[in-house]
Automatic annotation (TrEMBL):
Family from the record: Belongs to the metallo-beta-lactamase superfamily.
Keywords carried by this UniProt record: Hydrolase, Metal-binding, Signal, Zinc
The protein, known as: MBL fold metallo-hydrolase
InterPro entries named among the record's database cross-references: MBL_superfamily_lactonases, Metallo-B-lactamas, RibonucZ/Hydroxyglut_hydro
Annotated CDD domains: OPHC2-like_MBL-fold
Organism name: Billgrantia tianxiuensis
GO molecular function: hydrolase activity; metal ion binding
Signal sequence, renumbered to the chain: 1-23
Amino acid sequence: MLTAASAVAGLILPPGGMALAQAASTASPATQGGASGNVGYYRFRVGDIAATVLSDGLIGGPPQIYASTAPEAELEEVLRQAFLPTDHLALNLNTLLIETNGRRILLEAGAGQTMGPQGGRLFDNLAAIGLRPEDIDVVVVSHTHPDHVGNLRTADGGRAFPRATVFAPRADWDFFIRSDPDLSYMPVPEDFRRHFATAIRQSLEPVMGEVELYEAGTEIVPGLTTLPALGHTPGMANFLVHSGNDQLLLTADLAYHPIVNIDHAWLPGPDRDKETALASRRRIFDMAAADRLPVLGFHFPFPGLGYMLKTDSGYAWVPANWQF
Ligand SMILES: [Zn+2]
């Protein structure tokens, strides 16, 4: 059974919330590993489009949060068989940079340190490929949860990507920003919900005046189409990057971790409307499997690329081979 204390500890929330989390961000997480650290970027192509997964690091929490319908003993056994800890599920933050028609477009902004001290590596990984935040022309977020918008704000409250036009789904903006969101559906303690809502507001505050709100289903720029994937949040989109005959599907938070949401079809606790989210998941996973699409999972083990296989009982995640 998930207790309030274990949830807070597992989500690595500092007791002081945002203030402490931001103070911690003065350290540079990507350099903390020193010479023993690994790279956090991965380059590939989608037709004529150059694509680079840029890791923002990790978040995570008690596995039951992400697999809310799993019987406790079965979940533990599945995690043990996957050689994963049974008390904490680590989730990656795989943002994707695409470069097309002279523009640099970042898909998802990442968490920064809004959800714990292991996020916030994006800027070091951008620097590792020779880019600065001002080189980003467009940022598109699939939904406005803190782990997707956290890096939009600098530690002193400014715009982290000073030249970028930021696109966010309109229905999420209406729910999280224009109203006082009721987050009682989230299987986390009340103080976590408050922190979560505040982190969304604070992260988006610097772009409040000029954000571009989109309806899922529209094309943002040639080669980047959004697909409705509602349920996790009121407006969540998926992304289809396409060039010539090549495509890449980004599934945002349809699944958190392949082991618990694909290989086993347990429902993510943070899905606001679980039936709608389930229908979105099936529709998009079916498309990915039928069309043999390369898929990028935002929270999947880095770099998060692979394929969706249809099985007799559901789906299986097949990681892609590493490319040099
Ligand atoms: Zn997420």
